[in-house]
Automatic annotation (TrEMBL):
Gene3D superfamilies listed in its UniProt record: Glycoside hydrolase family 3 C-terminal domain, Glycoside hydrolase, family 3, N-terminal domain, Immunoglobulins
A Gene Ontology molecular function term of the record: alpha-L-arabinofuranosidase activity
Top-level division of the source organism's lineage: Bacteria
Keywords recorded for this protein, A-Z: Glycosidase, Hydrolase, Signal
GO biological process terms held by the UniProt record: arabinan catabolic process; xylan catabolic process
Lineage: Bacteria, Pseudomonadati, Bacteroidota, Bacteroidia, Bacteroidales
Pfam families: Fn3-like, Glyco_hydro_3, Glyco_hydro_3_C, PA14
Residue ranges annotated for the PA14 domain, each copy included: 465-607
Organism name: Paludibacter propionicigenes (strain DSM 17365 / JCM 13257 / WB4)
Entries under InterPro entries matching the protein: BXL, Fn3-like, GH, Glyco_hydro_3_C, Glyco_hydro_3_C_sf, Glyco_hydro_3_N, Glyco_hydro_3_N_sf, Ig-like_fold
Class of the enzyme per the UniProt entry, highest EC level: hydrolase
EC number(s) on file: 3.2.1.21
Protein name: Beta-glucosidase
Membership in a protein family: Belongs to the glycosyl hydrolase 3 family.
Length: 871
């Protein structure tokens, strides 16, 4: 009996095992699981197995898992603007506008090849740990920003590669190729994204409702579209992001002219279109072109937007309702989901890691020595010397110098925006100090970035339960409820961050936590004090039970809250904080009274020091994306004027009047009207936001260990009066292509040596269709130092009455030894002579005479002219 039972059980198990093997084998033969098929074939098969609601969720940027088909959760939104963003211990390279100043697209390629390695390594490590695929830790990166930096007031211009379509195209193509990996590889390393399509170049404050209509088609085709076309046709970019605003009455994410006729029909784009976050919901909340979320979802898909991004409550999940109402068909949804799933199969994230070479990239590549060197090399090449009176630079290492200014010892300023957090950062003060003995450097902050007052802190006068400072309680949830997991007493102004995987306190999680900060303050006298605060996450400040400010920011921005206090009165102060979304957590708080800046104390401290390096400019606390910042001259992340903040101008003036030699290191992501500074400063170095090694690069240039070679990728205007209305997208009077009276022109930058550009030899002054002309241009170094010159070639159509004055069509970095001559060889292909033809309403090469201008800046005085005839 026992034996037969045993055999029966064994036979049953055998049958079950055979059935399981059969099912497993069948599953392996399912087309969507077969890595030998094309991504398109696999995607079509997978779509046939999905329900309508599953299809809808896969078209959201946070795509939920479909366990029954083995589909994992996927996030489309990660960032890699100049390093893998919103991640700690990564390499942080210079801000893109600074990279553009290098005119070195080969180095840009190497940098973004390194960035993609770090992104893959971070993703691989998270996967091994079984962590859920989260925002900002994914294989889709929404980079590069190839919008044209048409107006210096735009706070996000720092994210771009400048004001020129050709330079932006060259740089953008290199970014995409570096991120996505070799074109002949089976799998993409990452999926890059060309954004924001199209025309978006500020302002931030009206981007959700602005209608750009009556735009001259010549401006559209010659200025705003070329970089996007180049990325589509020359780099095989796998994502295009549509912008927030309307173009000719239609929101860009619902604009069939942009997303169908131009992008797909004319340019042949065949991959994904993703929406900027909240852009589709803007259809009914801001633009009022849709009645509700269901209509907006169907409108977005019909127009060609394949993936919707939303902070939460994705409206694409309502697509089944749109189908039920007859607003869209399931067949149309299938067509757009196909683009999405092809992208995922191309990444290999649905296949076994053994098949995907990129899955083997280890964490050891992250911020390795090679990547650190790339960061320094680019920072060095980005340094742009604008003024050097009496050759005051380079500085002697034997003299004592003073380092002054709000950006001198500021690490986050160097990181720019859309950034990660590096392992280590070399501030400009650090860099300068490394060049000199300790007794030869004097440091004083001197003044604030923008405020003309300083805060005398009352934090030391706060106490609670007989203890100095703030009592803090933490919970490992977002609601300040349940058991307290940690307490602490903070006795100095609050400044906490999870950047670099730092806990707010031992036992507090890095995400999904909350905290309450409590103290009491007795006013020493009746006066107005200020609360200085900022946070990434939810922040609310109470005083005696009254809520003074509430906000939920995705980055830390400074807030100044004035408050009247009465002598001897006790004030109970409470802050409630919660970490939300997927952002790093940050909180800052101080309180005190403001006193006027008095430069006399600064000048006393600088007695006996002749040379002052003033490190100022702007920072991403002032310019950036849709920021709730309200200082004089700033609005919503943009600027309303373009001068250096008055407090810095006054400090520079005081230093000059005291007889100091002043070297101004200007850190900014945009052009500043520096006319007063050309008078008060002996030298001006434009240092941008230089990344983790920016301070080393500045010091290497100041002391002559590196000969600067950077050139301006943007025009520096004399005054905001040279600009037309910010919301006017006409190019008339904007950028070097349409104005000729700048303070510093596009393409300008000084060296510690002198170069002479000789007469070019043209391979053929007359060319026919699809032929090219090659320029050989002698570059002579007349000085005593070796250096690098950037030779630029511009083209202008003769007798073009309403076109650009000139347009960049070629450039080359040329290293020349002291006293030697080298040759720049620059090829102009046939399409270098392509301009907008109003008669045919398209871009084309028109037979006739063209001027070819070449030299070392866009200024007329720096250019020589040759003629080319198109037959």
């Amino acid at each position: 009996m026992k034996k037969s039972t045993h055999l029966s059980l064994k036979g049953g198990l055998f049958v079950i095992a055979a059935l399981l093997f059969s099912v497993s084998s069948w599953a392996q033969q399912l087309p969507y699981k077969n890595p030998n098929l094309s991504s398109e074939e696999r995607a079509k098969d997978l779509i046939s197995r999905l329900t309508l609601s599953e299809k809808a969720t896969l078209m959201c940027d946070i795509s939920d898992a479909v366990p029954r088909l083995g589909i994992k959760k996927f996030n489309w939104w990660s960032e890699a603007l100049h390093g893998f963003a919103n991640n700690g211990n990564v390499t942080v390279f210079p801000e893109p506008v600074g990279m553009a100043a290098s005119f070195d697209d080969n180095l840009v390629y190497k940098i973004f090849d390194a960035v993609s390695d770090e992104a893959r390594a971070k993703y691989n490590e998270a996967t091994k740990k079984g962590l859920e695929n989260a925002r900002f830790l994914s294989l889709s990166v929404w980079t590069p920003n190839v919008n044209i930096f048409r107006d210096p007031r735009w706070g996000r211009g720092q994210e771009t590669y400048g004001e020129d379509p050709y330079l932006t195209s060259r740089m953008g193509v290199s970014v995409v190729k570096g991120l996505q990996g070799p074109a002949d590889a089976k799998y993409r390393k990452l999926l890059a994204c060309a954004k924001h399509f199209a025309v978006h170049s500020g302002p931030e404050w009206s981007r959700h409702s602005l209608n750009i209509n009556n735009l001259d088609p010549r401006d559209l085709w010659e200025t705003y579209l070329p970089a996007f076309k180049s990325l589509v046709q020359k780099s095989d970019v796998r994502q295009v992001m549509c912008a927030y605003q309307r173009l000719d009455d239609e929101p860009c994410c619902g604009n069939t002219q942009l997303l169908q006729r131009i992008l797909r029909d004319e340019w042949g784009y065949k991959y994904m279109v993703v929406a900027d976050c909240g852009a589709v919901s803007d259809f009914y909340t801001s633009h009022k072109v849709s009645s509700d979320a269901v209509h907006a979802a169907s409108k977005g898909v019909w127009a060609g937007t394949d993936v919707e991004c939303q902070w939460d409550n994705h409206i694409y999940k309502q697509l089944p309702d749109a189908v039920a109402k007859g607003l869209i068909t399931e067949a149309e949804i299938n067509k757009h989901l196909l683009n999405v799933l092809i992208g995922r199969f191309d990444l290999g994230e649905m296949d076994d890691d053994a098949l995907v070479p990129w899955s083997k990239i280890p964490m050891s590549v992250v911020n390795n020595e090679e990547h650190r060197k790339l960061a320094l090399d680019m920072a060095l090449k980005s340094m742009t010397l604008l003024q050097n009176k009496n050759n005051i630079l380079p500085l002697s290492k034997s003299k004592k110098i003073a380092v002054v200014g709000p950006n001198a010892n500021d690490k986050p300023m160097l990181w720019g925006n859309y950034n990660g957090t590096p392992v280590r950062t070399i501030t400009i003060l650090d860099g300068i100090t490394s060049k000199l003995s300790a007794n030869k450097v004097l440091y004083e902050k001197g003044c604030d970035l923008v405020e003309d007052k300083v805060t005398e802190s009352y934090f030391p006068q706060c106490s609670i339960d007989g203890k100095k400072g703030f009592k803090v309680s933490y919970w490992n949830n977002k609601d300040l409820k349940g058991d307290v997991v940690a307490t602490q007493q903070i006795v100095n102004p609050i400044k906490l961050t999870t950047a670099g995987q730092h806990e707010f306190a031992t036992g507090v999680r890095l995400e999904g936590f909350s905290g309450k900060y409590e103290t009491e303050f007795v006013a020493p006298k009746t006066e107005e004090i200020v609360f200085k605060c900022g946070a990434t996450g939810y922040f609310e400040l109470f005083v005696n039970g009254e809520s003074l400010v509430t906000y939920n920011n995705w980055r830390t921005l400074p807030s100044r809250i004035p408050y009247k206090v009465e002598s001897g009165k006790k004030y109970k102060i409470e802050i409630r904080y919660a970490q939300l979304n997927n952002w790093e957590a940050n909180i800052e708080f101080n309180l005190g009274k403001e006193v006027d800046v008095d430069y006399s104390d600064l000048l006393k401290k600088l007695k006996g020091v002749d040379v002052v390096v003033f490190v100022g400019g702007l920072s991403t606390l002032l310019e950036g994306e849709e920021m709730p910042v309200s200082y004089p001259g700033f609005k919503g992340g943009d600027r309303t004027d373009i001068e250096l903040p008055a407090v810095q101008r006054n400090c520079l003036k005081a230093l000059k009047e005291a007889g100091k030699q002043v070297i101004f290191v200007n850190c900014s992501g945009s052009a500043i009207a520096l006319i007063p500074e050309t008078e008060s400063c002996d030298a001006i170095l434009q240092a941008w936001y230089g990344g983790e090694s920016g301070g080393q690069a500045v010091a290497d240039v100041l002391f002559g260990d590196y000969n600067p070679s950077g050139k301006l990728p943007i025009t520096f205007y004399k005054s905001v009066k040279q600009l037309s209305d910010f919301e006017d997208y006409s190019m008339k009077g904007r950028t070097y292509r349409y104005m000729s009276d700048p303070l510093f022109p596009f393409g300008f930058g000084l060296s510690y040596t002198t170069f002479a550009i000789g007469n070019a030899k043209l391979s053929n002054p007359e060319i026919k269709s699809n032929q090219s002309v090659e320029l050989t241009i002698p570059v002579s170094n007349k000085g005593k130092r070796s250096g690098t010159e950037i030779v630029q070639v511009y083209v202008r159509m003769v007798n073009d009455t309403d076109g650009p004055l000139k347009t960049l069509k070629g450039f080359q970095r040329v290293e020349v030894a002291a006293g030697k001559t080298a040759q720049a060889v620059i090829n102009l292909p046939y399409n270098s002579f392509e301009f907008f033809n109003r008669n045919t309403v398209k871009m084309e090469v028109v037979p006739g005479e063209y001027e070819v201008l070449y030299g070392n800046s866009s200024a007329t005085k720096d250019l020589k002219t040759a003629k080319v005839r198109i037959l």
